Amino acid sequence: MTDDVFAARAQEMQNWYWWGIPTFFKAPWNADPAASDIALVGVPHSSGNGSTERDQHLGPRAVRHVSGRFRRAHEAYGFRPWDAFRINDLGDVPLPEAMVNDVSVVHIEEYFTRLNEAGARPVSIGGDHGITGPILKAMGGSKSRATDGRKLALVHFDAHRDDYAFMGHWLGNKRSAAHWAAYSVAEGHVDASRSIQLGMRGNPLKPLEGSVKSEIGYEVLPADHLFAQGIQRTIEQVRARVQDQPIYITFDLDVLDPADAPAASNLEAGYRGLRAHEAIEILRGLRGLDVIGADIVCYIPTKDSPNQITGLTASVVMFEMISLIADYLRSRR
Fold first, then answer.
1. Hey, is 317 helix, strand or coil?
2. Are 152 and 250 in contact (CB under 8 A)?
């Protein structure tokens, strides 16, 4: 039997997610960032959030196993991102000191700086939310190729704020999942005046004085306000906030209702979260904006349901992010 016959048989199997070597969306594996327009990256990091379960580092492997079924066309945008651009799985960020958060975030920043210099737009799966700070530092600010030296506008989906500038550390971690939204602003990589945090819910540790607001300068849209005004008004608010800034999207799975993402860290059960279709509608509402990168964080595969619904939901959100970036790049041709 010739190699051509085996190659033809393999080609027939490409649509089946369970066949072949698992990569994100069955994309080719290529560790060279210069070979990608959109780079798919795993960030297997759990030591940035010492207050919850540690298995968030297993998220990238789990999403690879289920994401192959979503290598599809994007119906609303009318094209197949996989055919239009070079989209590769670069593998995982090497984190040889994975249990030491404040060393690992340096390694993450160095890795994504290399992607920025190569011109690749990253879409990543974590990992806990401590990964986002070093990615923002690599992708935005005066030395950034992706933003032409501008700061990033951050669109932050989360049940929690993660901007605890008043706390020196989080159980010993100074660059933790609780601090990244503060230090990325303080160090000149995110423009808080063009950024928005949305979906926050649950009860605080102590009663808040006055309305919810950010001392750092973020616009804050809590879940109850979001639902009161509706999805379309929310999209308008986000677009008005970010304007023409280059955008980075970070998506903590705990922003979703536990019905859609039961295996997220720091669940806020009992209080209405975004349903997956509502979050997707907001993401699609950013169409036409310059999204230079995105991540999804806080997936704990060992707590997922037997049908892996959280992993599947994360895959769908990741597909929407990839398609959003690809659609923008297509519009610029």
1. helix
2. no
pTM given for the model: 0.95
Residues 144 and 165: their CA atoms lie apart, in Å, by: 24
Q: 150, exposed or middle or buried, with CB in 10 Å at 0-12, 13-18, 19+? A: middle
* 11/3 Cα distance (integer angstroms): 12
- Cα dihedral: 29, 71, 56, 122 (round 10): 60
Confirm if 66 and 317 have CB atoms less than 8 A apart: no
| Cα gap 301→281, rounded to integer Å | 25
For residue 170, give both structure tokens. 């989080």
Q: How far apart are CA 34 and CA 39, in angstroms?
A: 9
Query: What are 185's two structure tokens?
Result: 């602003």
pLDDT digits (tens, 9 = 90+) for 120-136: 999 999 999 999 999 99
DSSP assignments along 44-66, one per residue:
---TT-TTS-SGGGGHHHHHHHH
CATH number for the region 35-331 comes to 3.40.800.10
Residue with tokens 């536990």: 258
Kindly give the parts of the chain with pLDDT less than 70.
51-52, 166-172, 174, 206-211
pLDDT at 169: 65
Residue with tokens 């999805």: 231
Q: What is the pLDDT of residue 4?
A: 87
Taking phi over 0 as left and psi of -120 to 50 as alpha, with beta for the rest, 25 belongs to left
First to last CA, the chain: 43
